[in-house]
Amino acid sequence: MQKPLQFARELVSGVLAPGGYAVDATCGNGYDTVFLAGLAGQSGRVLAMDVQERALENTRQRLKEANLDSRVRLVLASHSELPIYLEGHPDAAMFNLGYLPGGDKSLVTRPETTLAALEAVLPALKRGGLATIVVYTGHPGGMAEYEALQSYTAALPQAKYTVLEYRLLNQANNPPLLLTVFRT
Ligand SMILES: C[S@@+](CC[C@H](N)C(=O)[O-])C[C@H]1O[C@@H](n2cnc3c(N)ncnc32)[C@H](O)[C@@H]1O
Fold it and tell me: For 126-184, what is each residue's pLDDT tens digit?
């Protein structure tokens, strides 16, 4: 059995191939950005965003170490500003919500901006593409963010999207859960 983040990665690896385009809407410490840049290959592109300079620094460093920095555009801005930075149609978009591990826990993702980002990226997805959203409910505001995302994604039109919720039901300490929106 895969944990939600692992399963998100497996789903992304099924749609993002060399030459592809991906979005990391919350680059944080850069692990997902490195993962996306690896899949997108030398001719691919990744847009990675975060509101914290420290997150961008950590991501830049990790990309340099992996020699993947030239295929990634790092942007210090809220993902609610995605329409300004999006270049074309992504194969995949990853959202890993919450706060920066090891960072300031008050700087968390918020439902209004997360929803604005989804509203921008979902219609732009390539047909057959997808968006993964790893959601944490254990911190203040986390449950409200989950509820907002759950109702938003559950109401997406079936003719255009298929929505999957993947969550563990009997685990202690509020493990993360995964929402995935497939563009059909
Ligand atoms: C759980 S971390 C992301 C982990 C990251 N994907 C990785 O692989 O290390 C969540 C990140 O979301 C960022 N964040 C919070 N609000 C944001 C916003 N409105 N737009 C973009 N990033 C935001 C935080 O600064 C934090 O770095």
Answer: 999 999 999 999 999 999 999 999 999 999 999 999 999 999 999 999 999 999 999 99
**How many other C-beta atoms are found inside a 10 Å radius of the C-beta of residue 179?**
25
For residues 92 and 88, what is the distance between their CA atoms, to the nearest angstrom?
12
Give domain limits for the chain. 4-183
Atom of ligand 1 nearest to the CA of 59: 9
Phi, psi of 145 (to 5 degrees): -65, -45
Query: CATH number for the 4-183 domain, one of 3.30.70.600, 3.30.230.70, 3.40.50.150, 3.20.20.70?
Result: 3.40.50.150
Which tens digit of pLDDT belongs to each residue from 69-105? 999 999 999 999 999 999 999 999 999 999 998 888 8
Residue 31 near ligand 1, beta carbon < 6 Å: yes
